[in-house]
Every structure is written in structure tokens, then in C-alpha cells.
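Troubleshooting log. The previous run stalled partway through. Resubmitting the same two chains, unchanged.
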Amino acid sequence: MGEKKLAHRCKAFFSKPSNVLLVIFLAVLFVLSVLPLITMVTNMFTVHIGTEKKILRLQEGAFTWNHFERLFPISDWSVVNFWKPLGNSFVVAIGAGVLGILIGGTVAWFITRSNLRFKKFISAVFVFPYMMPAWTLALFWINVFKNSQVGGGNVGILESMFGICMPEWFVYGLFPMVIVIALHYSPFAYLLIGGILKNMDATLEESATILKAGRMKIIRRITMPIVMPAILSTFLLIFSSGFSSYTVPVFLGSAVKTFTLSTKMRALINAGYQGQGYIIAFVSIALGCFILGLNQWFTGKRKSFTTVTGKSGQVSLVDLKKANLPISLFLCVYVLFFAIAPLISFALESVIRQPGNYSLSNMTLHFWIGTEASAYETGMISGILLNPTMWKALGRQVLLALIVAVIVGTSGMLIGYACVRRRGSRLSRWVESMAFFPYLMPAMAFGTIYLAVATSQHFKFLYGTFGMLILVASIKFLPFASRSGINSMLQISPEIEEAAMVVGVPWWKRMVRIMFPIQKSSILSGYLLPVISVMREVALFTLLVPYARYLLTTMLFSFNETGYSQYGSAVTLLIVLIIILINTLTNKLTGASFDKGIGG
Amino acid sequence: MPHISLEHITKRFGKFVAVDDLNLEIDDRGFITLLGPSGCGKTTTLRMIAGLETPTEGRITIDGDVVFDAAKGINIPPARRDIGFLFQNYALWPHMTVYQNIAFGLENLKWSKADTRKRVDELLALLKIEEFEKRYPSELSGGQQQRVAIARTLAPSPKVLFMDEPLSNLDAKLRQEMRTELKRLHSDTNSTFVYVTHDQLEAMTLSTRVCLMSGGVLQQYDPPLTVYNQPANRFVAEFVGNPTMNFIPADHVSGEGGEAVLRLFGREARFTAREPLAPHGGKLTVGIRPEFLPIAEGGAIQGVAYSTLPSGMETTVKVLADGVMLTSVVFGSVDYAVDEPVRMDVRGDGIVLFDAESGKRVAIGTLAL
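Second attempt completed without errors. Output:
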């Protein structure tokens, strides 16, 4: 009897498509994100072939505490390889968080709460740097400020035009890292804070006005406390992004040997200290989890609120009076500068023969369209547009982006559906948090985990394959897709599906004909986001590609690391243009956009 | 003594005219409702008097002081107009406790701690929310939040109180209860209330005068019963009263001055007006309130029962007569079978004639079929 009962219950359980989906995703996510993590943890205690084996004089795969013993207790080695990079990471993350919020928050306030001019333009162009890869701003910084006194001694735009040499701390190291990461993430802060400011019920401020509170008092006592949870969580998100940023510290730190945790992780692994690299990866992941917990604690407090939406369309805007035009113009110039100037600098850098000499006679299109023959004279490879390696790398990256987008977009949608339908159940909670889990892992650490898997005995066949890259990218970019899937499903009342259920429409048809069309725009952005993310991702792939010129982004890094900065600039420009093209195309075709502005 | 006057107030949002040339005198200690369908400009009007919105043209005076004058460029900010404003969604500050919410306005007036404490306690008692003093708004029910919002608005004892659909987020029973309390509050606080609503029943039961608006234009500004009994036009007649007034198309056959012969339901009827008929185009609409259209054996109008809606104390009967759907209200519970033949009569001296084209009232009087 009992067995029969169980069988019936199972049947009832699996007759619901949402349950089937949840079980499938639970299994897949467990295998693809939890198991690798466990593999990585075991790798923190084992001896690896190569350097470790030689130093420790132990069998490969043997258990050891040595990685911890070398990394954590204070010593010259641990300070250089762990404590100093850790401190640097904190400085960069905190600095970028604060500065990013200052910039983004200020612009958000002007756009949503004042009668600033050219709002539409400023809003659209301001988010532009967020769409570009973070390292484009880093490269731009170097292009402008590098000079004969510091780093490699190459002459940059500023020195060659005005003869100004900025000091080393300004050009390389922590200071520019903070600035660049802050600039990159300030649009993110702008979107989040601006969204809150825009949706915040204006009557909350108006009622304070009527009760005779002054403008400053309203900002201090009403507006700030209400947007504070949003500001804090924005800070934490920028903090964790800054903490795990890999590309920016590589560009801005390598020349002066300033390491952060992510760049150190790679350096250690490359130098054969895998065990310690994995430990650092684990530290980053643990920190990510801690940050998320902190974030939930901030946003889940008693004072937090569900806004009763009112007639918030009727916001009375602050009159900037005489300051209006100067502020508007300043912001226009500011956003234009960071949107256009980097592109110009890349174009410029990609056509000069001798770095640092910007005269017309030094210009050449070799790096774009030079042939193998002309390349021979200069001792270089052919221009990137005639280079089959480049085209193959580009093709692979685009293919990867498309495949990952299909996988991630579809999974996100289905996870959204299944989790919302079974909301409140333990299964749904597990799947939801597991799908979000990869977000906590810095891309570099995530790549490291999969490296650990791919170099382990049973999974050697994965190493260096295209399938591996698909797998990693799909899991890594799933969190946003599943979040947006869940959010958009929550907007739809179950009655809409139930109405179709009652008349006997099968599940797949309900999905294809009802649920998906309703959420069209959010689903499309669920597909668009992974495309752009893959197109600009480096850190995730850098350890996993079979060779450096396998993908366009990793190729760019190898160009820069080997001193072919002109090729690097050309490839960067190419990547940025492709991203813009994808975004514009999707926007024109479907109305979905990466940079859904809040202004105007 | 706060007397509010609006002169030629116009508000345009781009090309859209929200309020068009509005003139309004609000008496001291009045309870005025701005009534109308959504989008008629009532909220905009209220916000303009409060200073939250700037009119495009016109002049507003509160208590003899000009608070807004488009021609002279005067625009006193809301904080200096000495008013209170109760928002539809309460607009309680989520990060402050009930006490802090109520005390905030007094704090801005630089009241001492002790005085603030005393006044807040007074209000907590008045609105029966003493036990929630330390709670945050998110921990209160809709009705409790509403009371806190009222307390906060009343705390500085404003002379004029503006309310923007304050009861629309409450359930029916609570709304009834709060209506009673608001009316009581009005006489207790001795101040002028200006109240926005789209609920005609609320306007009828609460106010001393109703200002009915439509499409940004003032339709009628009178005491509620005047609006009910002597509607200025068909829109007013239709908007006020539940069930709605009956409208029957009619032709003017003959007669001038106080007497006229009309043709309706295919027969002639004699209309005796209280005052001479206003000039009109010949096509008329007869407006009869349901209570003036009783169901009676041997009545003049022949129809069939379409449906019967008993509600206990009274019964609404829908009758189809000559292609026109008529509504009658009968005291007590009656029941008619569907399509049962029914006869109706017209009685009373509150029958209203409208010009069919312009919708303007032509006359009020009795109708003999």
C-alpha cells in the first residue's frame, strides 16, 4: 500500500511541468556548479604536478596542508602573494564603490529630480561605458597618460601633444584602477539609484514640503534614508565587481607589479602554484557569499518597505535656475568624452607605426589591412582584417556568444517559470539560489574551478575544448537571466496561464503562445545580455582556452602582453563596434536594449 | 479665516488642458468636494491650491493673501500656505515610526520636545492609534496607515485641509467608517476641508458643497442636494445619484412659458414647469429620478420587467419600455419574473428637461402622461 501511495504521489508531482523543470535544473546545476566547487576545494589540499611536486617532494595528488601554510601565516612570501594583493583588492573595491555611487547617484538625481536639459541624450550616452568592456577604459587611460618616465616608457597622447608627463601613481596602480572601475560601474549605480528615485513616490517628499521641511532637510531626512538600502546594495554590487575585476588590474597593474587578488590568482596558477591559486579563488567566493548575505540583511530589514504606488508621475522638479545650462553642458561633455574619446584613442593607436609618434607620416593601415608580405618587412603578422587567425577567433567568439545566449536565455526563462509557479517550495528556493550562485564567484575563480575539473583525471577530455567554454559561460551568465526570468514571471498573474489550462491547451503551447509572448521584451534582454557578456569576457576564458589566440578577447590580451599594442587597439575597437552593432540591431528590431534608460 | 478663491485658473500640460478657466469660491469652514470622473482635473485643481502644481494662468487667494498670481509672478511655496494635505496613498515615510511620522511636521515648526510629545499623544488618542506609536508603516494595515496619515496632517493644526481621494484604498466597510470620522473631524477641528473624490456618494454624504468637474471644466458648484435635484446639465444628472437618472428622448410639440406639450413613448404628455422654459432646439431629453418612476397598477407606461435587484431595504427594478431601459426603485422587497408585464407611473415635481443636443437643463417641473 505504502509503495503504491508513493508512486501515486510521484506521478502527481511529475505531472506538473514546473516540477519536472525544477528537478532537471536542480540536477544540472548541482553537477555544473556545486560539484566543480567541491573539486576545487579538494584541490586546495592536494599536490599538483610541476612546481608543487618538485618543491614538496610529494606524490601528485597527495594530501597536504602546505598551500595554506605558505599562503596565510605572515611571511615575505605570503605578504607579496596574498596579503598585499588582498589589501589592494579591498582598496580598489571600496574606492570604486564609493566613487561610482557618487558619480552615478549625482547624475541619477539630476536626471530624475531636476529640470536638467538634454536628459535623454545624457541618459543614453552615460550608460554607454557600462556596455563597453571595463578594460576599454583601462586601455584608454593608458593610451592617454602613459609617458616616457613610467612603465614601459612608451609615449602616450598627453605627452606627445602637450609634453605633460603624469607621475607613475597616476598612470599605473591603484589610483587609476579605482577611477576606471568607478567610471565603468557608475552607469550601473545610475540605473539602480535612478530607478529607485524615479519610482519613489513623489508624495513622500511633497508631504514633507507641506509640513514645512526645507529642501536640504527633505533630502537628508526623507530621500536619503529611503534610497539608502538601494545605495548600499549598489555599493556592495560594485564592491564585489571591483573586487573580482581581473582585466582592469592586469592592464593598469602589471607594468608596476601591483597585484590584486584576481591577477595574483592567475599569476600563481601560471607559475605552478595551483593549490594556492585555488585557495585565493575560494577566498574570493567566500567573500562574494558574505557580500550577498550582507546585501540581503540590508534590504530585508524591518524598516524596508513595499511602496504603495501613487500618482508619482506628478513629480515637481527642482529648478536649477542659473546653474542649469552649465551643469547640463558639463554633463553632455562628460558623457560624450567617456563614450567617444576611448574609441578615437583606439582608432588612433591602431594606425601609428611607432608608438608615441602621432604625426601623419608615422601612420599606417598595416595593423588593419597589411598583408603577410608587408608584415615580413616590419617583422610582424599581417593586419587583423586579413589575418585568418583573427577571423577564426572572431567567428568562435560570436558562435560562443550565440550558443550561450540561446542556452542561458532559454534556461533563465524556464527557471523563472518553474520557480514562480512553485514559489515558496523548498525545491524552488534551491533552484533559485543555485542558479544565482555563480554570480558570487568572480569570473577568474570560476574559470579556475573549471580548470581544476578539466585537469583532473576523469575530465581530461574537456580541457581546451569549445564545449567547455560553452559550459562555463552558460553557467556563469545564468544568474542574470534567471533573475530577470523570475522577476518578469512574477509580474504575470497565474490566472493568465490557468485560463488556457482550463480549455485544455497543452503545456508547451501555453509557453510558446501565451507566456513567452507576454514577456517578450524581458525575454529578449535575457538573450541579449549573455551575447554582450560573452563578447567582452576575458577573465572567465583566459585559463580555459587551448591557446591565447583562440578567442578574440583572449587574443587581444596576448597582443597587449606581447607588446603589439596596435593590434590590441585594433581588436579592442573591433569588439566595441561589434557590441554596439549587436545592441543597436536588437534595439531597432525588438525594442529591447541593454541600456534601458531612465531619463527623458 | 481661510476663505479660498480661484480666479480664471487654467492648467495646461503641453497641449493638454487639464483645468480650463476655473472660478471657485470656497467658504470658510466649508467641506468642499471636487467631484468628477478620473482625468477631469480635480486632483490637479487641488494640487494647484496646495502649491504642489503651478497653474498656467490665473490667481489663487487663501485667507485674503494672494498665494499665486500668474500675471504678477507670485507663487508662494506650499510650506508657507499653512495647509495640510492628505495623500491618496498616505505617503507615510517608511523609515520612520508612527510617532516620528506625526512629529516630523512639529519638529519643522521648532516645537519643543515636550509640546511635540503632548500634541502627538493627543492625536494618537483622537485617532485611536496609541498602541501603534512605535511601529513602522509597513507593519500597519491600510486603515491604520490611513489614521496615521490623518494624524500627521492634523498635527500642525492647519486651517485648510486638502484631501486627495483619501479613502479610495480602503475596503468598503472601513471606508464607511472613515467617512463618518472625517465628517466628525471636520466639525471638531473647525477648519476648511477640500476633498477630491470620484465617488458621488462620498461627495453627497460628506460635503457642504460639491464642485463637479468634467474635462477640466466646472459643471456645477452647489450644495449636494441642489446638485441632485437641480442638475445643471445631463452630465451632472447622470454622474450624481445611484441608481442613475432615467433619460427618455422626447419631442417638443407645442407650448411656451410654463406649460408645454411633449411627445414621448409615442404619446403626448403635458409638462408644467416651475419657471418658464429656456429656449431650446425642439429635441429634448426627459430626466426622471428612479424614485419618481414608481411601479403602479394602471400606470401610464407599459413595459416588461428586465431584471429585479432586491437589496433588502429597497429593490431596483429594470424595466424595458418601448426600447428604453428604465430604472425604478421600490421600497421593500418585491420580485418580478423575467419579462413579466409591468406598468409605471411618473410622479413628483422634480422631473428635469434637458436640451437633447447641448445637454443643458431647460426646465424642472411635473409631467402628466
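Takeaways: The interface with chain B takes residues 201, 203-204, 206-214, 217, 221-222, 225-226, 228, 302-311, 314, 316 of chain A (CB under 8 Å). The two ends of chain A are 67 Å apart (CA to CA).
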